Model the fold of this input.
Amino acid sequence: MSTLLLIEQVLNGLQSGVMLFLMAAGLTLVFGVMGLINLAHGSLYMVGAFACATVALLTGSFWLGLAASLAAAAAAGVLVEVTVLRRLYRRDHLDQVLATFALILIFSEAITFTQKQLTGTSLPMYLDPPALLAGAVSLPFGIQYPAYRLAIIVAGLLVAVGLFLLIGKTRLGIRIRAGESDREMIAALGVDIDRLYTLVFALGAALAGFAGAMVGAIQSVQVGMGEPVLILAFVVIVIGGVGSIRGALWGALLVGLTDTLGRFLLPLGFAEVMDPASARAVGASLASMLIYILMALVLIFRPTGLFGARP
Amino acid sequence: MIREPVLNALILAALLLVPLGALAMDEPFLITLATKVAIFALAGVGLNIALGLGGMVSFGHAAFFGLGGYATGVLASHALNYDPLMTEPFQIEGTTQMLVHWPVALLLSGLAALAIGALSLRTSGIFFIMITLAFAQMIFYFAISWPAYGGEDGLSIYVRSEFPGLNTLDPIQFFAIAFALLALALGFSSLIARSRFGLALQGARQNEARLRATGIGPYRIRLVAFVISGMITGLAGALFADLNRFVSPAMLSWQTSGEIIVFVILGGVGRLFGPVAGAGLYILLEHNLGGLTEYWKLPFGFLLLAVVLFARGGLIGLLAGEKRDG
Amino acid sequence: MKLKAKLAAALSALALTASAASAEAVKVGMITTLSGGGAGLGIDVRDGFLLALKQAGSDVELIVEDDQQKPDIAVQLADKMIQSDKVDILTGIIWSNLAMAVVPSAVNQGKFYLSPNAGPSQLAGAGCHKNYFNVAWQNDNLHEGAGAYASKAGYKNSFILAPNYPAGKDALAGYKRFFTGDYAGEVYTQLGQTDYAAEIAQIRASGADSVFFFLPGGMGIAFMKQYAQSGVDIPLIGPAFSFDQGILQAVGDAALGVKNTSQWSKDLDNAANKAFVESFQAEYGRLPSLYASQGFDTANLMLSALKVAAPADADAFRAALMKADFASTRGDFKFGPNHHPVQDIYVREVIKEGDVFTNKVIGVALEDHADAYAADCKM
Done:
């Protein structure tokens, strides 16, 4: 195994971590501010991907599609927040899990239905990265890396920085943080709490839609694409500590790197102690369980996650 | 409004009369559907002990359902292939006897629930939901990639397991077995709810501080309840394997965990007969809406949403009013 | 004229249900995937099957149900079709794990099962059954073809990958059975995995001269798009599943030029196939897929046997099926002793015709190919 290959795998882990962060950030914000467990967050990711693919197909421009994905996911987010989720903020977790589970069914079937009516099939849709970012670029030390994946890393880190600035330095951010710690207080200060909540939800939804569009260009755009990512994003925020943006960032990078490097290194590691065929199978099996093992370990030693508030 | 005991009796009678009527009309498939309702209800009765009485929102009960299923699948497939389960240090043969499958399923799912519960109960709230999911996912991925018992392809049993004195291949006789076990579990669950243990468990959910003040540790009570809950769901898994004559990792998937939660909530959380009503309604809807449209999950999603938003007590709450204790 | 025909068909259907018990018409139950991620395959099988029935003006009564790609739903539907609908023949299942759940118990209850897609090795070998006929392929066939093609094309060092589940392991075993070169790497990916950056990095570093992959559905789309973007230019080889008519449009340019193996292609030069492609397009407004051709062949096989005997006369019906006396879209088609096809496996290349991505046959990988499990089958 060469060092170059290892560096490339670290980049891959970083890229998958950065995308997970975009998903996890919205999820953790919504939980931190409104106390809502939103299983339908993956559906917003899917809405973003479908909006991007549809607009890119019609106009031929990935960038217009990307803009559409932000708009569509934010709009879908506002719609469900105002009509449904608003009623759930004070309910217990069970009601929230069930209602948002119902939303997953509704979103998935509605998109299948719409796609079928418009295109006549429910097959995966086509979305290609923009021509500007096609192919591979040469990095120092002779590493060849896909330009688009590099762009994902950069875009994701920029969004992370922007989010930290937004939460840390702006009036909106102050309100959001205040909303996390004391709802009555900020209502008493004359902040329209309903509007604040809708805004936070739209922000989270737009981030999910953005992630869906970015990832849609390297994967397949299809119904059901949101749920695996949703589960990973939950793993991320639980590892990081629910409600913490910083925790979401570290959790996402940890999960991205563990998953990528585990898939790569475990089969090689087992090959040192057993025959290659069983090493491959055992390594691959263990790799698929690895992040769940990681999550269980974190929770056993720090029951509220790495950056979570101590009870 | 109907009084809850009356409603419960009606539900039980309906579950018994539908297959008997089907038998009279020679509609064996209706009996199969009723059997499925009974088995799903049993799984829900298990979850309801953790969820309804103990307030533990487990998003990983598919693990116990699946383990129970694999207990039956593995034992039966060894017996059908005349291939001993193990030969060292002593020989253990597979078997097709339900009376052996059930204790094994109970033991296996109980042990799993003990391990998962012991670790998960250190957390609470969303962390508990997610860690139970994490353990179920570990077992799911393990089952997919473990080649000995079919992996993703699952394991066919070909012939339904046997029960002394009964012909289990006859739909109505197999239904009788599932129904009897469901009735037993309901009785057991009702005993638990009224026992000192059950009261302490509900106390731990409602007011942990007060319970601590009486000198009872909530952790051990919850753990015991979680193990019982997992075992009952595991037993349902064993029956489900026999119903389908097939087990696969799909039984262990997070969607299955979600469905078991849906049965409980659709019927009414913490209501003794909630899971029975919920499973019945679910199968009814799946079967009827599924026949009407490919997109049956769309109306189903809206219905589920309406139940959560407007009918919080589920079906039982709707018909029998709010639960008396809070 | 058309309306009249429809009316007559509706009336005869009505008459059939009215006198279900005494009716002579054969009942066929189709369990297939019509919703969810894998719906495209089931819909194609169903449409191909329906087209054949329509062209024959057959009075077979077909009951179609959606299994949602879930084994327990499939088992339930099979129970319903056998117990309440009292079907004579079952067909339609797309996925091996669903087939394993349904087929053994159905054929043991005396029903016939005609497989339009899945061909798990158990049902071809020790678990074969006299009432089970596979009209598509044994699962390994196309992978074996890929291995044979890679050897013929002069490749010496392959990197091979598939998901970590039984069909994935069978795929790599099938490729190895006919590939004569060495292996630069062998990787099992996670089932449902959508990001292949780690595997592609390994391929780049491996020094392979060819890459064989089996990644059905969305996994294959994701892999090919990411592979094209990575700048790695080692040639890809795969079974037809990732290059099918329906899926190609979602992969786009990334698939152009890739060689894939299939027992069917829309440009196969025989009369039955030409008529099928033309009539399918006229009926449904889209190009037929591999799965559509399999559904079409399955129905025609069944119709050919029904002309000779009714399923109630099981021995005669079985013998008629075994003869495979129908014009297959694949040209030559016959059954081996384990009721699985003996057929040519072609090599196709992905091309672009106008705006549409499609395949063109460039050669034959294996001629009159039977599966590796027939010897284990004792009927």
